[in-house]
Amino acid sequence: MYVKLHSDYAANAMAREAAEIIKSCVHCGFCNATCPTYQEYFDERDGPRGRIYLIKSMLESARAGEATRTHLDRCLTCRACETTCPSGVRYGRLVDIGREIMEERAQRPILQKIQRRIARIFFPYPRRVGFLLRAGRIFRRLLPAELKRQIPPRQTVAVPSDESNAAGRKMLVLGGCVQAAATPATNAAARRVLRRLGIDLVEAPSAGCCGAVSYHLAARAEALEFVRNNVDAWWPHIESGAEAIVSTASGCGVMIADYGEILKNDSAYAYKARRVSELAKDLSTVLEDEDLSQFLASTDQQVTAVHCPCTLSHGQKREGSVERILARVGIPLVATAEGHLCCGSAGTYSLFQPETSARLLDRKLAALTAGDPEQIVTANVGCQLHLASRSDVPVKHWIELLDY
Ligand code: SF4
Ligand code: SF4
Q1: Is 55 in the pocket of ligand 1 (CB under 6 A)?
Q2: Is 0.90 surpassed by the pTM of this model?
Q3: pLDDT score at 159
């Protein structure tokens, strides 16, 4: 698809990058077959090809209206379309650029602006998320049923000792924001499991949110502050030999893997950010390379369904990694249909698109529970909380199954 950039964008590097990405689209429409929103609405503008046309039109006319905002907002950024696309269209990057340009061109209603600002004020900070969760639990009885379901029960966590292991292998781990407050058992389990393999997981105290919340809400400058802060926090550890930067939430992992691309034009950070991206690993990638024989499960394990987050399967191209690990240690798994479809969590999507999100959640839970599993596991805190909000069976992070 050829894009004739509007004169306003002729010298705009982001717009030129978007035009290059659009050029690689041959408008075959294969991507619609795996797009969750197209599968729900069957409207061309709710599929990747239609959204690409909307972005192209915005770049050519320097105008964007309510329809463009509605259909770009409804995209989950799940990147299932990237996995399907035969032409290698980098849709995830394109929609991020499209949204940034759209925010400048299409006036958002004031209520939406406030909601998005509130999300950016709270979610990247674990203490603020913790405060919201505590308040939610105290006033649970007063909340509407839908909101009540979103508040997870408090997890009590045995803190792993600070003693380091003799083997001396060291990896960095992102403490995270929502996960640190809502599901602290995940990182505690990861620490214990990796320690049994002779690896210390180290958290850099000044590292914070990966930046994904701001980045996907089109607040690029704010996101870059989080990104640079993390690069600075990790760099001394990288110089002293940290082998990897491990993410226990795949949503953060895919963002960190992109740091090199995001900061490629920042001369002060480009090299360091590229190195950070090279070292970024999902927890499943780390464990797949290790001898897991000491984790062999007893025969009375619960039958488990695995939900592979989009950020792991489409974002990091690691589909099936969790299933392979659980199968290696003897956890009985049930097959599930529609693994390529998003559960509807998608960062802040469930807050801003509740109707579509709920439709996708019902569809996903039906697929996951069709084989009567006793539990569901996943690899991303957002999916975990979202699935748990309506699931009749417990939902956990998969690493908890190896930590017994
Ligand atoms: S599958 Fe790829 S090339 Fe085909 S329409 Fe979708 S994005 Fe374009
Ligand atoms: S990112 Fe997901 S929701 Fe958005 S267009 Fe691609 S497949 Fe559809």
Answers
A1: no
A2: yes
A3: 62
